[in-house]
Write a structure and sequence with these properties.
seven-stranded mixed sheet, alpha/beta, about 220 residues, about 30% helix, 9 strands, Rossmann fold
Length: about 220
């Protein structure tokens, strides 16, 4: 079954793109949320990177009183690890895979496609990237956690067992608690993944020091071979 492509903001280099980042926003935001950050990374024209910032579908979110808002999946309770919306997570995985496939049709090899996401978006890129059947360029997971971790061992892809993963989190995060991110990091390490782990004295946000670390990491992942 064909998956309809999500609408997205796109930032393209002057010359033809040689790599792509698909970057998913957090709950209640949209693709414009991280648009102002991209110039700070200085990777679009320098490295020939297309950045795709899709808008999540709108759906009721239980934890917010059933309010309809952009969301990659429902959150039934404040404890994100309980009662997870498996159907919604897997639907967003399928939509992200469709965006990856479109980048391939536009001439970008899978190995030059990197997945990035913040909060809910970070959960989806972790979930999808670890299961993707071809080697990706990397996973950037910001202020987030690993969803459906009990299914990881049975579903993880051999092709991405050595994928580079950067996780960054605020020690003062009141939305996705630091201990939840630490548990996810430990679960991934137990499964054999190497995690480039960073923490910052910040809430559920992105800070300048974090941007500098992201830029260095992205330069290594998407710079000239």
């Amino acid at each position: 079954m064909d998956i309809p492509l999500l609408d997205a903001v796109e930032i393209n280099p002057v010359l033809p793109a040689r790599a792509s980042i698909i970057w998913l926003h957090g709950l209640g935001a949209d693709g414009h949320d991280f648009e102002p950050l991209i110039p700070q990374l200085d990777i679009v024209d320098r490295l020939g990177v297309r950045v795709v910032l899709p808008h999540a579908p709108r759906r009721p979110v239980t934890i917010n009183g059933g309010m309809v808002m952009p969301a990659w999946y429902d959150i039934p309770a404040a404890d994100f690890s309980r009662g997870q919306d498996s159907e919604g997570i897997r639907a967003s995985e399928a939509q992200l895979r469709a965006l990856i496939a479109r980048e391939v049709t536009r001439g970008i090899p899978v190995a030059r496609i990197l997945l990035a996401g913040f909060s809910q978006g970070g959960a989806i890129v972790l979930h999808t990237g670890l299961r993707y059947p071809e080697p990706l360029a990397g996973i950037l997971a910001l202020s987030t956690y690993l969803p459906l971790e009990a299914q990881l061992e049975a579903e993880m892809s051999a092709a991405n067992r050595a994928i580079s993963i950067m996780m960054a989190h605020g020690t003062l995060d009141p939305v996705v608690p630091l201990h939840l991110a630490e548990q996810s990091r430990e679960r991934l390490q137990q499964a054999g993944y190497h995690i480039d782990w960073h923490t910052y004295a910040m809430p559920h946000a992105v800070y300048p020091e974090e941007v500098a670390d992201m830029r260095r990491w992205l330069m290594l992942r998407l710079g000239p071979a």
